[in-house]
User: Fold these one by one.
Assistant:
Number 1:
Amino acid sequence: MKIAIITGASSGLGVEFTKAIIAKYQKLDEIWIVARRKERLEKIAQSYPNIKIRVIPIDLSDDTSYDVLNRILIEAKPEIKILINNAGLDINGRFDAMEVGDIINMVNINIKGMTVVNRLCFPYMKKGSFAIITGSVSSFVPVPSQAVYSSSKVYVKFLTRALREEVKEKGINVCLLCPGNIDTEMNIRSEAKMQKTKVSRLPYLDMKKLTVKALQKAESGKSVYTPGTFYKIYRLLGKVFPTSFMMKLTKNFFSAN
């Protein structure tokens, strides 16, 4: 049984990836969508009555969810052709004012959840399979007011690049997706503009085009995909200029408020 797995599938990029995979990869036997909100996942599945979609309602911030996913994989023994490891959480604010619970949730989802999903799924991937792991432009330079989030995405970046080297000899590609501003629940465009946040001044990416392009890039063997000219230039600047200089830019333009 050949399948695709999408985590963080109940909103934002996860929904768009699900749509794009359904449209492009019609020979898959099943598509598994993973997120904590069961009702939303079921609504997505009901929208495609002719597609076999398996709803897996688990919270990747909870350790018990890994046992659930592992048991499902052991029982089904699928061949994972596409893995979209997309679940993530972004809560902005000064570190000394953040709720401890919010910090723990970000670390649990962005680092632990992302890591364990890779570990559970990779043994079921074979030659020709590929994975897209969602990072962020926030990993290019430390971002004040996003200290925990940007740090967690640095971990994602390093792990993804290392994993790619480990599995490419098996004919499996792992692609790091580093998007910038997207109109999602974590960053609603209309609210950001209304509140006149700094982030609202940055270019917003088209999620539909982004996901289609990311699938093309990953399938063709690309290691990193940063959508949008503005963010590509930002990535380059982060490599060329000293971190102290770039942090002044991120403080003025990338931090939330």
Number 2:
Amino acid sequence: MSIKTIFITLLFVLSLGANERIVSLSPSITEIVYALEKGDKLVATSDYSLYPEEAKKLPIIGGYSNPNIEKILSFSPTLVVGQEHNEATMQKLKYFKIKTLKLNLKTIESIKKSIKILSKEIASNYDTKLIADIDDAIKNAPKNKNPHSVMIVYGLHEDLRTGIYIAGHDIFFDDIISTCRNTNAYTSDTTSQPVLNYENLIALNPEQIIILYSKATDLHVDVQKALQAWHLLPTNASKNKRISIVDESYTHIPSHRVALTISRLCKEMND
């Protein structure tokens, strides 16, 4: 191959990279793209893409579960990256010959695998570091010498009678509970995000309850009133005063920042 041919080929490859236009369908994917040092290729994302700070400036193509096809197409993307719950949206995009990539971000292992897949797709060299950070967090997380049952709750509620979402199995929160050498208070394996009522909560009788609270989504909740409701619940967690709120913004997001979530929740389980 001549020098001229190599030069032309190189220019063509660089041109393709320069024209890359990525649309992210979730905050998690947005975070990972930025962490892979390809944030400048993002042209749009979904609601609640709040990290890093630059992500707040991106145009919004809709909600987490209902992105707008017309808005996505208006950005002329070369790649749309979503998750399994975006399957219907991505099928529609394929009709318009838009390249899509579906990632699985449910468990710690699937998050690591997806980081590697996305890194390869967008020609990044930063996946090794991100995965190493997760592995280091697992290795260095405090391990409980006296294992106990833990229930992780999504969101802070003043009314505990219905609609309480918790972490089940086959999800990264369950992995973290095991990493910290504790057990998930939810024993059924039927779903990764079960919805419980008051009676279900009492029946599980967890020894510790960790509530994941985000001001971005639970802005109008009376925190003290909600905590009082949980402490009145007849469980071992209430009896032993092991009910706490974790309000770090990253805990809800299955991205490379799961490394932070591992460290934070394992610390909470060992305090």
Number 3:
Amino acid sequence: MSEYVIPKPPIVAVPVAGGGRFPVRRIYCIGRNYAAHAVEMGHDPDREAPFFFQKNPDNLDPSGEFPYPPHSSDVHHEVELIVALKSGGTNIATTEALDHVWGYAVSLDMTRRDRQAEAKKLGRPWEIGKAFERSVPVGPLQPATEVGHLAEGRIELKVNGDLRQEGDLNQMIWKVPEMISYLSEYFELAAGDIIMSGTPSGVAAVEKGDTMEAIIEGLGSLTVKVV
């Protein structure tokens, strides 16, 4: 007899370039981590304490398709660098933070912007606008041992060939080591955790039939069709 009283949920995993899969424990997402994006969302770009929200591991989707979600008429793209951890802990020093990174990937933080705006107005959590099914299209993870640690490099997103978002990883307000260190003060990080590191300016709506191409220098591209 099984020790579980219902069928055990499957392990969520992201494909790895060259073979294998990376099992995912948690997803932490930093908000407004590029100054120009903070401005376009109506906020002061000055450096302030970072804030995070979470998505669910099973929101990750490597299929190359993004089903337009229900209960929204304003769904936005946000191209982001994913940071995948191989180990963790608490109170991690910034000087040691990159020792915990397994690799990196190109991803999209798809957002029901109208539902997020309603939640903000009412002072409610963002999950209804952020943590819906298949809301994180993701490319294959690439090991830091092969691509290095990405502190700079072009990040952009095109829709149907037209450039929508562009920036550089060095424009992050909070850099990757700082994000890891800050999170570890409030959570016990562990192997399998993923950090979505924010998006540059240019977020905008997509429609069914659109093709999104997310590109991060050093990691290649991720092509996703809105269906």
